[in-house]
Write a sequence for this structure.
């Protein structure tokens, strides 16, 4: 069987590299041999080398980080998708949105164990789902009676057969668009520090940073960084990170 790694540790069977460049598929599927749900692209066939440099590094493949990358590279063509790297510490995408496929006794249904619906007044998901991505939806309430947490409708995502597609399908779609444009997604990459580049990094852009990950490999030079991390993950970063020092501020955005 193929191995699987999370945060630099072999957790499955056989051997695998600590970092996984996505190969195919972002849907999270229940893996009986692992006892957890893992994205298709995080299992087997992974490269063990991180990129030496990224023009835009997004840390965290949740809604905020993925949307930022998608908006810049796909929706507005502000940057090239091939200049984008997305790093995710876990073996799945979506953050607090977690849609699981292939659970025992549920057939091909997607089960949401995190966020699962959006209100029509929530402009970001509504405009994205209805407008830019044009994903199929259905009213959460029977008959679309506009009584979902106020006088409005809530919606869930549907597949082509009318079944629940999973709320994470929005994130998965954006990542697929990014990958098709040349972006790379890395699973099992746990950020431990954000540093100013030393003299060893020749040609570093102004305000660039060096990202270091859990296994101690050579750092990734990043021209721009978006940290889409929960507060506890930021607090676990090395205290010498530029976020916690009086060093000149690099170009880092925290969401």
């Amino acid at each position: 069987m193929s191995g699987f790694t999370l945060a630099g540790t072999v957790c499955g069977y056989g051997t695998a590299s600590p970092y996984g460049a996505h190969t195919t598929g972002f849907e999270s599927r229940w893996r009986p041999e692992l006892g957890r749900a893992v994205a298709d692209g995080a299992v087997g066939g992974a490269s063990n080398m991180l990129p030496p440099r990224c023009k835009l590094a997004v840390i965290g493949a949740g809604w905020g980080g993925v949307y930022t990358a998608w908006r810049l590279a796909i929706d507005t063509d502000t940057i090239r998708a091939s200049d984008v790297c997305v790093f995710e510490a876990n073996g799945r995408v979506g953050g607090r949105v977690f849609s699981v496929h292939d659970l025992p006794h549920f057939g091909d249904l997607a089960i949401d164990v995190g966020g699962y619906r959006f209100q029509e007044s929530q402009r970001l998901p509504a405009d994205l789902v209805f407008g830019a991505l044009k994903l199929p939806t259905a009213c959460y309430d029977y008959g679309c009676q506009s009584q979902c947490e106020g006088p409005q409708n809530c919606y869930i995502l549907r597949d082509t057969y009318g079944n629940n597609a999973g709320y994470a399908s929005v994130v998965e779609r954006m990542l697929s668009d990014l990958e098709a444009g040349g972006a790379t997604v890395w699973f099992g990459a746990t950020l431990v520090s954000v540093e100013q580049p030393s003299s060893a990094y020749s040609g570093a852009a102004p305000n660039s940073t060096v990202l270091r990950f859990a296994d101690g490999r050579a750092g990734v030079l990043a021209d721009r960084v978006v940290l889409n991390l929960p507060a506890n993950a930021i607090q676990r970063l090395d205290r010498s990170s530029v976020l916690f020092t009086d060093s000149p501020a690099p170009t880092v955005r925290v969401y």
In short: The first strand starts at residue 5 and ends at 6. DSSP finds four helices and 17 strands in the chain. Residues 3 and 15 are 5 Å apart (CA to CA).
